[in-house]
Sequence to fold (467 residues):
Amino acid sequence: MVTTMRTATTRSALVFMLSLGGMYAAQASVDLIAVGSINGTYEDLSSRTAPPLENGVAGNRLGGIGSGIAYAGGTTFLALPDRGPNAVSFNSAEDDTVSYIPRFQTFNLSLAPNPDYDAASTSSLPLVLTPTLRSTTLLSSPTPLTYGDGTAVGLGSGAPALNSRRTFYFSGRSDNFDPTQLSTNPRNARLDPESIRVSNDGLSVFISDEYGPHVYQFDRPTGHRVRSFTLPDELAVKLSSAVGNTEISGNTVGRVANKGMEGLAITPDGKTLVGAMQAPLEQDTNSVIRLVSIDIRSGAAHEYAYQLTTGSGVSDIVAINDHEFLLDERDGKGLGDGSVAKVKQLFRVDLRGAADITGKSGDLSAFAVPKSLFLNIVAQLNAKGITSDLVPAKIEGTAFGPDVKVGGATRHTLYVANDNDFLASVNGVDNPNKFFVFAFDDADLPGFQPQPVREQDFLECGFDFDL
Fold:
């Protein structure tokens, strides 16, 4: 189901001609050039999901949208919330998850010169980012899914009321699974989407899921799932539970609950997906996580080792070219956690010649791919006057965007977004959805190849496909 506020606006050119008359001198370094913000009290455009969820939160709260972000051509980006507003306690037997229908949001993220820019001020930014929500697309399957009946957790059925004969919506509720199957069973209705990428033709989206883990392909205009990629069984758990801690204690092999496939990249040629597990598998040690490459045409998968440096896990991965990637390694500190941010770093890795670790376990550090620091996000934001207590705790979404022209020089862009856990404020402090835009040059990221996504303007009109 797709809902929209208006028809698509005029397409924007890939390269923005934003000249500031030389006021901002381009330099060979990564620079924060704009910040955009969306109030955490807003609702999205899926009015049919607006009724309150089990915990009382509106079912169309516009939150968590920085769990994943993808460039879709022109000034269009897709933003991905995770499994829903479960930060409000109501049922521990359900891990406080609710019947939120997973979705992606289509935004216009437009950049314009900042009329108040002051080159002499370190906190002043040359551009202004304005986010505009264009549509909301719910994620579903055209074939039946497995839902929990709710009796074990004191709730009703986990099947969404919006389901119809040919549309079966995914849900964030943690009991929506078949206990007789591996957690990677594609018929499970529970979905915790964490990263999103767009196909080169602009017609499909690929989404990674923590519950399985899974990697799914969806039809972008309708939100219907069209394919499930088969992942290695060693990523799955045999004992699934509605309670994450029970899953963790009951399995010795597979992903750790709530720390499954957190990131997903697509190579610029559109041929390969690379997923990143957030944390080490149950059978792995020494802070090594797994990267999983998937050939989109054949479905063939390979695994590689990545050594964590200082963060508690990896939240996203984005492709530089067909063999190099940036990984978002972070802790959970900062705004939204009531603490001070310390680690939000992007590391560059090269999978060329890396050893395939499929079937191996234990200490995999000897197989770890080479890495180097590309960007210290906390340091960059601090340098622009954003104190560490205001740096979002969950910096989770990364995407390369269109080139911009700043001070007469054309520069590449990198967009970074946060997951605010659907909480409009924390301890009385505003906790918005935010987008940070960084500019960089070829010298900063040698070998960078932008993905040539074909911009699509869909006439989205809100109907389900129960024909």
